[in-house]
Design brief:
338 residues; 434 Repressor (Amino-terminal Domain); Rossmann fold; 3 domains; four-stranded parallel beta sheet; 12 helices; 12 strands; 42% helix; 16% strand; transcription; transcription regulation; LacI family DNA-binding transcriptional regulator; DNA-binding
């Protein structure tokens, strides 16, 4: 008969009480030893810190916050699908910047982050929440306001007191793309967009249509590719099969544009840019690779993250400051595909 596997006890985390017992001091003396500026004789402080190091003790920062002793330095980041390379690059830089400034990022990401998960993370003593793109339920916004948790939003505008936003001038960027295509002599132009419920998609489509109308042109086709590489590949295949006359394609982000480039030059045997111009939006790192040389509209990542960090510092220093909206100016970046 098989014997039951004995239950292994959980590892014991060394506590301040353990340090106090080993050092022969009070619990409050241990606390003062780890509190800058707290009164404690230097010899006793050094003795306590030596014992703590031997035992492997570190103060519980979150416990101190829950007792009302300072900030947690926890910053939640809510982001969308990381198949969107732009969001991946934004997240990477945000995490780097937060850690460099002594903050600890808590990341929630995916195609559709459940509202319950966002509400659950609000149970932590957050210093702030950064929301990258997508949509935020009103309940989350209201709850953040009640808890006085600062919120910085990027990729959309959230009209709410005390919530700061950083957003690209997407309409202007789309107009720059159309202008470049028209100047190249393209007249049979199609649009490949993302999810219809995103503000960036609405703005880029509106900018495209407005610029096309101003040029006296009508789009050959308007379609969507969910902002992913695979979406761009599949949608472009369908576009070029149904409309082989297309000579210009504006994609609402670089991931879709790279998919479009792959299917156009590979399966469809189109010569880019001789017979087909392709322009993306964002200027992700892959767009700059010599093997792609993607012409695109730069949605400056460094400037976006810099502004988000500035707004975060401002909001933490002055919680009552009025909401601020920062618009990132787009830039046309010519490379090999237009």
């Amino acid at each position: 008969m098989a014997q039951d596997t004995p239950v292994q006890p959980r590892p014991h985390r060394v506590t301040a009480a353990d340090v106090a017992h080993q050092a022969g001091v009070s619990r409050s003396a241990v606390s003062r030893a780890f509190t800058p500026g707290a009164y404690l004789h230097q010899d006793k402080r050094e003795h306590i810190l030596k014992v703590a190091a031997e035992l492997g003790y570190r103060p519980n920062a979150l416990a101190a916050v829950l007792q009302g002793k300072g900030r947690s330095h926890l910053v939640a980041i809510v982001t969308g699908s990381l198949e969107n390379f732009y969001d991946s690059e934004i997240l990477s830089r945000l995490v780097q910047q937060l850690i460099a400034q002594g903050k600890w990022p808590v990341v929630l990401g995916g195609d559709d982050v459940p509202e319950a998960d966002v509400m659950a993370v609000l149970g932590f003593p957050l210093d702030a929440m950064i929301v990258r793109g997508g949509s935020v339920p009103d309940e989350v916004v209201d709850h953040c306001a009640k808890l006085q948790i600062p919120m910085i939003v990027s990729g959309r505008i959230l009209d709410h007191p005390g919530i700061d936003s950083v957003c690209c001038e997407s309409e202007q960027g789309a107009a720059l793309a159309v202008q470049a295509l028209v100047e190249k002599g393209r007249r049979r132009i199609a649009y490949l967009g993302g999810q219809a419920d995103l503000s960036s998609e609405r703005e880029r489509r509106a900018g495209f249509l407005s610029a096309m109308a101003a040029a006296g042109l009508a789009p050959v086709a308007l379609t969507t590719g969910n902002y992913s590489y695979d979406g761009g590949l599949e949608s472009t295949r369908s576009l070029l099969e149904q409309h082989p006359e297309i000579d210009g394609l504006f994609c609402a982000n670089d991931a879709m544009a790279l998919g479009a480039l792959a299917v156009a030059t590979g399966e469809m045997k189109r010569r880019v840019p001789e017979t087909l111009s392709i322009i993306g939006f964002d200027d992700i790192a892959l767009a700059r690779w010599p093997s792609f040389g993607l012409t695109t509209i730069r949605n400056d990542i460094e400037e976006t993250v810099s502004q988000m960090m500035r707004l975060l510092a401002r909001r933490l220093d002055t919680p009552s400051a009025p909401a601020e909206l920062v618009r990132i100016r787009p830039e046309f970046v010519p490379r090999l595909t237009h």
